[in-house]
Amino acid sequence: MKRDPQIQFRSIDEIKSFQEEALRQAMVYLGERSPFYKRIFKENGIEPTRIKSLEDLKLLPTTCKADVQKFNNDFLCVPKNQVLDYVTTSGTLGEPVTFMLTENDLDRLAYNDFISFTVAGCTSEDVIQLMTTIDRRFMAGMAYFLGARKLGAGIIRVGNGIPELQWSSILHEKPSTCIVVPSFLIKLAEFAEQHGIDYKNTSLKRAVCIGEPLRNIDLTDSTLTEKIFQKWPNLSLHSTYASTEMQSSFTECSHYCGVHHQPDLIIVELLDEKDNEVLPGEVGELVITTLGIEGMPLLRFKTGDLCHAITDPCSCGRNSMRLSPIVGRKGQMIKYKGTTLYPSALYDILDNISGVVNYQVQVYTNTLGTDGIVIKIGTPTPTETFEKMIKDLFRAKIRVAPEISFEPVELLAKSIFPPANRKAVKFLDVRELL
Length: 434
Prior knowledge:
The protein is α/β, with parallel strands linked by helices. The chain has helices at 12-33, 35-43, 65-70, 103-119, 139-151, 163-173, 183-194, 223-231, 343-350, 384-398, 409-416; strands spanning 85-88, 98-101, 127-130, 154-157, 177-180, 206-209, 236-238, 240-243, 248-252, 259-260, 266-271, 284-290, 301-307, 309-310, 322-323, 328-329, 334-336, 339-341, 358-365, 371-378, 403-407, 427-429. The protein contains eleven helices and 22 strands.
């Protein structure tokens, strides 16, 4: 399938026409190559060549993560000897799932992140410091590395953590951009303050951020972003949204008004609980159809992520749709004392409480059979007065107050950052276990 680096700047009609041609190619490919989708088409009486428009997608059943877990090898469309790289999902909502990439898929991945870097304003003149892991079967780190190579930018593969090594590279190699989990920027600043590093006047001017939200649903800065700006007032922070399943990413431009869709790589739908398209501006589940993937393409895959579309043209000149920040994940929705919550609402409050060093939100099934919440908080001031203040703040912000359990900071850190995980475990759901 052809790709078009300028497709985001073309008219809405041109973008739609491009995607429909790519969709027709994808349907033929799946009908010929995918054991899973060939079976689905047969069971549902679907002739793949009859799916010709974006509107025709609603005639097709959706696919979910459980399908990929159960029938993993049936999603593979090429012989195993054509697989060059194996990656796994992070396992946020269950067991990790394996995805297999061919040479062409790796080239597509490089193209994806090349475009993402350009959306964030990067050029071949930049030096990029990678502050995320490239190992542990992690797709994102490898994708950033491949994308930087395609861009022609220099890249410093430091990996995650180790503030001392990060600062050594920043001071000596003078990167202009970093790829980073945003909360780590605060740790970098604190390390610099403790060691007399003038971090506000270094070469670092831009951060492409992964894994944590920078904006609220209305696109205002999150509490985490405000805290970063207190330390790094001149740092440009760019949100991203991505997943291993889609092998694609959405990235924020310098106008910070939603993450940009790459229409030559992926088709996007936003669906309600009955798999109907939501109205413009309404929150729905993000459902994706991949374009140009050779190894394990997906058709109408339900990501579980809830957001809304932003369709007005961006001031940067791109006309493709943008996604709002993720409201939450369907599997993480909490019904607590008559209030529907997502973990992000709890995080935003906790991130703004002085004295909270770290925390973990745990959801369980209480004796009444409904959702209960206990927030484990690591703090040097575990007093009744502090607990009351936290609960009062929750009542003021979200009308309900969860249980609070104070924990030793170091002990809680071991639960939040288990050795086998690539991401911090800030949310622990044990409802299914009771």
